[in-house]
Design goal:
The protein is an alpha/beta fold. It has a single domain, classed as Divalent-metal-dependent TIM barrel enzymes (TIM Barrel), CATH 3.20.20. It has 15 helices and 12 strands. The strands form 3 sheets. Strands 1-2-3-4-6-8-9-12 form an 8-stranded parallel β-barrel. The chain starts with a helix and ends in an 8-residue tail after the last helix. The protein binds zinc ion (2 copies). One zinc ion binds next to loops. It comes from Naematelia encephala. It holds the Pfam family AP_endonuc_2. Belongs to the AP endonuclease 2 family. GO terms for molecular function: DNA binding; DNA-(apurinic or apyrimidinic site) endonuclease activity; isomerase activity; phosphoric diester hydrolase activity; zinc ion binding.
Length: 499
């Protein structure tokens, strides 16, 4: 049996039938997956030797040769879709090769290893690739996120699992689930090679599990559970969301307990998926998660700690007052994280530069190296074995149209840049940093020209519940919606305010 055929037999995870889905999902979730699948076959496509131009060396897992090229686009039209699958603009045979392991050996890990969910081998973190990727759109179905990530040359990715702007969405069709399962599987089995440890789902922005209002909490919980159920259906292991806000109506301690209650309850209602709490930017507000203390306090109340992790967003970290710009401040910030939370809980990073100053408490994402954090911090992350083997996800500004056309040029360039600077030694870095930043800024300006800053009357919304209803970026934005650049930047990937 060919690997491609065997991949198609995997279907929905075996544990699904034992799971009681949320009520509105039961009819569809019970539907048997179709036996047919996306037909994939190796394509005799040219190999773009990106690894060399990046100054990186691909390994067996990551590199692409004639035997592990991505699937070509079938000519068959799937039932009911009326569209070619995969979409023409995401045709896997056009994807670049993916760089992976660094050209030098990462230094031995001097601190406890991260909490990544990939297989642990005897070589430890030093031989794992940094799973660089971006938050990509699911427009066209969840499997398109894998195609977009692959097109950007990513080794990891983030995605929403439904519209992040509404409480309820239609359940998945079995075919959409099957496509995702087929494409996420290893290249040996005909997929694109996105294992569990490389995908970090981002939850709905509407969810606030810190809200003391019982009714609103329950509405949030059902949305949270639905997100996590969808992860389970897709075989995804890591679900990241914004912990919530007190909305000024309770103490932070009470919110920690409400958030932990949701985590404990969902652990009993949906199997396997790990809840990954994201750190937030808005220190000195009602928002939970702006300090390591907040994160540790929630974890302390979780019963099954094997199913809770942390995602650190570098922009949020910096805006909340944790400096990572110099070797000294970088070491100190991550020493504190290990001391207060524990490296063993770290399972993902959102890699974003910041337009806001250190401690500015504003969630304003910027392209890597072009904001207030600067390239050196990102190079340190890329050369630190603490961050290998876990998804490192860009939520940086990209042209809106790119999210719909599948043109992912800004992220493709950022991924290349990060792998490039990973391979530059300290001595060389001192002389080359300025030149590389200048080159990259010019490239970014060409790919996504900066626009005039618009003064916005947008007010922080910490008090409502579900009234805001606007989309957050990161690739999941709805079709055809025009969003001004400044809003776009602010919403790229992570909104900090929850209702
Ligand atoms: Zn984020
Ligand atoms: Zn986020």
């Amino acid at each position: 049996m060919s690997p491609i055929r065997s991949a198609s037999k995997r279907g929905i995870p075996a544990s699904s039938p034992s799971l009681t889905p949320p009520p509105d999902l039961q009819s569809k979730a019970a539907k048997k997956p179709r036996a047919s699948k996306v037909k994939v076959s190796p394509a005799g496509k040219k190999v773009n030797d990106q690894a060399k131009t990046n100054g990186t060396v691909a390994t067996d897992d990551i590199k692409r040769d004639d035997d592990d090229l991505p699937p070509s686009r079938p000519t068959k039209k799937p039932r009911g879709q009326g569209k070619l699958w995969p979409p023409t603009e995401l045709d896997p045979s056009d994807h670049p090769s993916r760089a992976g392991y660094p050209i030098y050996n990462l230094p031995p890990l001097q601190v406890p290893r991260n909490g990544g969910i990939g297989p642990i081998d005897d070589v430890g973190n030093s031989k794992r690739p940094h799973l660089l990727g971006a938050h990509v759109s699911i427009g066209g179905g969840p499997a398109t996120a894998l195609l977009r990530a692959s097109k950007a040359g990513a080794n990891g990715l983030a995605m929403f699992v439904k519209s992040q702007r509404q409480w309820k969405s239609n359940p998945y069709e079995a075919e959409a689930v099957q496509r995702f399962l087929d494409l996420s599987t290893s290249k040996d089995l005909g997929g694109l090679g996105y294992p569990k440890e490389s995908i970090l789902v981002h939850g709905s922005y509407l969810i606030n599990l810190g809200n003391p209002d019982k009714e609103k909490w329950e509405t949030s919980y059902q949305c949270f559970k639905d997100d996590i159920f969808r992860c389970h259906q897709l075989g995804i292991g890591l679900y990241n969301w914004h912990p919530g806000s007190t909305v000024g109506m309770c103490t932070k301690e009470e919110s920690y307990a409400s958030i932990a209650k949701a985590i404990n309850r969902v652990h009993g209602e949906v199997p396997e998926v790990i809840c990954v709490i994201e750190n937030m930017a808005n220190a000195n507000s009602n928002i939970i998660g702006t300090t390591f203390h907040d994160l540790a306090s929630i974890i302390a109340l979780v019963t099954d700690r094997s199913r809770v992790r942390i995602c650190l967003d570098t922009c949020h970290l910096f805006a909340a007052g944790y400096d990572i710009r110099t070797p000294e401040t970088y070491r100190e910030t991550f020493r504190k994280f290990n001391e207060e939370v524990g490296n063993g809980y770290l399972a993902g990073v959102h890699l974003n530069d910041s337009k806001a100053d250190l401690g500015g408490c504003k969630d304003l994402h910027e392209n890597i190296g072009l904001g207030k954090i600067g390239l050196s911090a990102f190079r340190m992350i890329m050369r630190d074995p603490l961050f290998s083997g876990i998804p490192l996800v860009l939520e940086t500004p990209a042209p809106e149209k790119a999210l719909e056309s599948g043109e992912l040029s800004v992220w493709t360039s950022e991924i290349k840049l990060l792998y490039e600077i990973q391979g530059i030694n300290d001595e060389e870095w001192v002389t080359r940093e300025g030149e590389i930043e200048k080159r990259w800024r010019a490239e970014r300006d060409k790919l996504n020209p900066p626009k005039e800053k618009k003064v916005k009357g947008k007010k922080s919304d910490e008090d409502g519940n579900g009234k805001k209803g606007k989309g957050g970026g990161g690739g999941g934005r709805g079709k055809g919606k025009k969003v001004k650049k400044e809003e776009d930047d602010e919403e790229s990937g992570c909104e900090s305010h929850t209702d």
